[in-house]
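[Q] Does anyone have a clean structure-token version of this?
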Amino acid sequence: MYAVVRRIAGDDDLAEDYAQEAWIRAIRALPTFRGEARFSTWLHRIAVNSALQAVRKEKTRRKREAPLPDVIPVPPRMGDTLMQRKLEEALAQLPDGMRKVLILHDVEGYTHEEIGAALGVTSGTSKSQLFKARAKMRRMLKGYENETRTKEIEAWSV
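[A] Here you go.
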């Protein structure tokens, strides 16, 4: 059975899969074997049909699949550039220590202990600086958030 299926599949791994499927079909169809032909002929026909059906399925699957591009373009979101500029302006207005802690913790993902060791301060000072930096950023960006939402609502209502 394997030799027959191997010639159809053209690949050892596929032939093993197709032969296994053929054996499963043969065992399930065993009660329907009438004995009008030799058993080997009946088994051969099941193996051929099983392999041909698997090849057809594979061809159909390949036709339906489209290759993915290497890079999937992501359209820019409305207001991202403006938001980025506002964030940069707000970060620039923070005192040096607050800005460093905020970037190291929220952007780079460092722990307070790592930040303390890097900046030569205690982890408590790092936590305090982060709390103050976030609060100050919220105050500086508060009006911008409402302005952006208003513009988005106006764009949708047009």
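[Q] Thanks! Anything notable?
[A] The radius of gyration is 34 Å.
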